[in-house]
Design a protein that fits this description.
With 278 residues, this protein is α/β, with parallel strands linked by helices. It is 42% helix and 19% strand. The chain has a single domain, classed as Divalent-metal-dependent TIM barrel enzymes (TIM Barrel, Alpha-Beta Barrel). It is globular, with a radius of gyration of 18 Å.
Amino acid sequence: MQTGISTYSYPWAVGVPGYWPEHPLTALELLDRAARLGAQAVQFGDNLPLHRLSADDWLALRARARALGLHIEVGTRRLTVDNLRTYLGLAAEAGSPFLRVVIDDGDYKPSEQDVVSVIRAVLPVLADTNVVLALENHDRFAARSLERIIQQTNVERVGICLDTTNSFGAAEDVHTVLSVLGPYTVNLHAKDFVCERVTHKMGFVVEGTRPGTGRLDLADALRHLTPFGRCQTVTLEQWPPFRDTLAETIAIEADWAETGVNWIKQNLREIAINQKRQ
């Protein structure tokens, strides 16, 4: 497995609606950060959509990645036939082994069967581009629902981008998600978190924390995924809570990212050492 960063390693620096930095992090700057941190892959999500780049900028981005020895991974949001066709083309051009997709987008919330129909319509494109469609567990769909979608489409061409926190939105923890979706996982979004009761005791808050200091047992997740042999990249994602200012939040986010890449690397090294001992 490779170590990767993402546009969601730096969500505040890239830009969040209502909190736009004066100088948002650019795609080329993200590549430079990946190289500096010693990551091997860079995943571009829907918060920095690749289809909006000009042809020249897209060409320059791929050239810069090659020069730095980095792999580009392509992501998008909104599972429709047209959007998938667009992004599968971009994934093929970038040499991305998978296309990470968040199914929903605003009011667009297709049913489970509608998702199956859309995926079946693009199966020929998946075959032609040799790209795996990586569905991200993202709030609404339970793990068993995502498994049914895969089994009703194509288990070789359709997989999972497994996020370690998103399924709290479907009342499922990471252990449940791993147990069901582990065999289909081609990309792991490693996002550490804390879950704390609010001061008045009526409820909990789930939020991000410095990688390696929260509730996520990354080593356990990697031990679970390794035997299946499908997970290609462990990608750092973060949910840094907003601080007093945007500048302070962005600075903390960058500090956490450096910690997070080292956290992933260390866990991958330990997995590799344990495999050699067996």
